[in-house]
Amino acid sequence: MSVAELTPYKIPESVLVVIHTPDLQVLMLERADRPGYWQCVTGSLDAPDEPLPSTARREVFEETGIEHGELRDWQLSNVYEIYPVWRHRYAPGVTHNTEHVFGLTVPEVQAVKLAPREHLQYRWLPWREAADLCFSPSNAEAILQLPRFTAPGG
Cα(19)–Cα(123) distance, rounded to whole angstroms? Predict the structure, then answer.
């Protein structure tokens, strides 16, 4: 049994991973629990002491099957109000989540293996189109930061 199965509530600390190619094609995933809601890979820590890069790699693999790529901590975090529709997943009284942003560079557009309980389909899109597709403002903003983090010296 995993730590997540032992813990009754989600930890209100998560990662957002913008998976992209060197030419800034971004992987977008459609949520299974909210068809029409598109996002990058996201996920909560399984334990309070789980290192953020480990969470990012774990979530990328669980949601896409991608095992390799250059993971970069963008040193950005967002604190946002948890949508009421998802608050039941958190302990009573928890209303905000802290999200840490990472980028994962993969060599090229590739087929991914979706977690069927989490996502319905995927698309690779140019970064601006990907940002426009996001339902989450923090996810869209992260994608819009992509050129800054992929530029030489960025």
Answer: 11
Distances (CA, A) of 104 to 38, 46, 89, 91, 128: 18, 20, 27, 30, 17
What is the span of the domain harbouring residue 101? 3-150
How far, in Å, are 13, 102, 104, 122, 151 from residue 80 at the CA level?
Answer: 11, 17, 22, 25, 28
Kindly report, residue by residue over 107-131, the tens digit of the pLDDT: 999 999 999 899 999 999 999 999 9
Number of domains in the chain: 1
Q: How far apart are the first and last CA of the chain?
A: 41
For residue 100, the domain's CATH number is 3.90.79.10
Cα separation of 138 and 77, whole Å?
Answer: 9
The Cα 19–Cα 85 span in angstroms is 26
Give the C-alpha separation, 49 to 45, whole Å: 8
Q: Report residue 97 as tokens.
A: 């989540």
Dihedral of alpha carbons 124, 129, 130, 133, sign = negative
